[in-house]
Structure to design on (294 residues):
């Protein structure tokens, strides 16, 4: 029963975007706590003391994370792949690239039965456009221009210019490597970076008034020796952070978070990528969704 409730909470965003009478602009902007970057991986200007023998492990991991994030921030293109799993079953996969000019992605959502939905998104110059494969008639092949503050099907990471999948890297912190292989770090993520991995529908059913900018959610950080290879977060850990701050969640949001695992993996594409706006003749507004762009 819990699995069905959790899946229903996630599938709510699919109904919003893909149903016959869909309103893709229904996802409104959710207020999020601002990041205190001084507590993140970047601590420029502060001298780093020499670690003692007991501190050497954590100090090495912290230095490695800082350098890895700096390296990725200077890369011309970074690939990312986000997986949303509910009780071990994949419900959504988003694959994309982030470049200096913006980002683009393709998402595959698993609906009821064997139904799948595909969504393409582009963002550059402060704008975001989305396209659904299930749009029919004159809307098929068109790109919907998102209103200010709106995000495609309520996915909070899909913000203009820099996606949350990439910006969260600067909000990570580590306390050391998980084992001697040094391929995984024990870490945490600032609250607003963690919130960005959720959907607006789930976030809207959370009481976040007690959450502080400095609050953090435990995460597992993959490390390949020079770059962050992945960041994994449990929805139940996010829920615990909210409740520890005096907040609460609706029954639906609680069920969804307790059953959800989110992982973002990173890669370095070999070929350069250019992100551009869709052709003007294929762009439509929310009011034009039924009539299409043609």
């Amino acid at each position: 029963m819990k699995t069905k409730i959790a899946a229903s909470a996630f599938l709510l965003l699919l109904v919003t975007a893909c149903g016959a009478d869909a309103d893709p602009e229904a996802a409104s902007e959710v207020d999020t706590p601002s990041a205190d970057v001084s507590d993140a991986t970047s601590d420029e200007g502060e001298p780093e003391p020499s670690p003692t023998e007991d501190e050497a492990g954590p100090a090495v991991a912290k230095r490695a994370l800082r350098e890895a994030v700096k390296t990725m921030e200077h890369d011309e293109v970074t690939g990312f792949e986000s997986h949303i799993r509910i009780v071990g079953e994949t419900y959504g996969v988003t694959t994309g690239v982030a470049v200096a000019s913006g980002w683009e992605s393709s998402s595959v959502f698993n609906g009821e039965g064997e139904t799948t939905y595909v969504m393409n998104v582009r963002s550059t110059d402060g704008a975001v456009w989305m396209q659904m494969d299930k749009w029919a008639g004159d809307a098929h092949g068109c790109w919907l221009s998102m209103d200010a503050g709106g995000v495609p099907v309520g996915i909070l990471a899909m913000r203009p210019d820099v996606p949350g999948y990439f910006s969260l890297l600067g909000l990570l912190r580590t306390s050391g490597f998980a084992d001697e292989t040094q391929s995984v770090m024990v870490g945490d993520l600032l609250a607003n970076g963690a919130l960005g991995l959720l959907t607006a529908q789930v976030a809207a059913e959370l009481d976040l008034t007690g959450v502080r900018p400095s609050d953090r959610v435990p995460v597992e950080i993959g490390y390949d020796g020079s770059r962050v290879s992945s960041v994994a977060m449990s929805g139940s850990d996010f829920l615990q952070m909210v409740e520890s701050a005096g907040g609460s969640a609706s029954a639906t949001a609680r069920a969804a978070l307790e059953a959800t695992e989110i992982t973002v993996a990173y890669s370095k594409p070999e070929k350069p990528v250019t992100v551009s706006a869709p052709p003007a003749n294929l762009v439509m507004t929310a009011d034009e969704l039924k009539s299409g762009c043609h």
In short: The radius of gyration is 20 Å. The chain has one domain: 2-18+52-288. The longest helix spans residues 56-74. Confidence is low (pLDDT under 50) at residues 13-40, 42-46.
